[in-house]
Design brief:
Blueprint lengths: L1 H18 L10 H13 L4 H8 L3 H13 L3 E5 L5 E5 L1 H22 L4 H26 L1
Antiparallel strand pairs: 1-2
Helix pairs in contact: 3-4
């Protein structure tokens, strides 16, 4: 079971993202899409929160944020010399709306090949994994 979790879930995500039409996300790099997804789902964030969430260096986050800002997808609001807040622009939200629709379409296509009874088991398992992830994140944050 551990091997499936360690290897198959990340493998699925790699294959899925390779096959996902990145043009639906403006041709952005995967890391940039994930940063935008975090902002899309969770609202404004500080760069340090983004770095911590994705275990990216601050420099790597800054690189992606600068590119996203150049394209008009995010706004970097400077609170003072050292603190910034990042938020999606209207254009960034529209891009994510289109990209998420494409990703959902692709997921539906994949799931349509799996028998219904297995999907219910998968849903229950993923809900348990989500709960476990939340608990692990809480422990790590303390």
């Amino acid at each position: 079971m551990g091997e499936l979790i360690l290897f198959e879930i990340p493998r699925f995500m790699r294959i899925f993202t390779k096959n996902l039409n990145l043009e639906s996300f403006g041709g952005l790099k995967y890391q940039s899409i994930m940063i935008m997804w975090l902002l899309y789902r969770g609202g404004e964030k500080r760069p340090t929160e983004i770095a911590k969430t994705f275990r990216m260096s601050k420099g790597n986050v800054k690189y992606h944020l600068d590119k996203l800002e150049e394209k008009g997808y995010v706004k970097i609001r400077r609170l003072n010399k050292r603190k910034h807040i990042i938020l999606l622009t209207a254009e960034g939200r529209e891009l994510m709306d289109r990209g998420v629709l494409e990703a959902k379409r692709m997921i539906s296509e994949i799931l349509s090949r799996i028998p219904r009874e297995y999907l219910e088991d998968l849903k229950n398992t993923l809900e348990k994994i989500k709960e476990l992830n939340q608990k692990l994140a809480e422990v790590k944050d303390t």
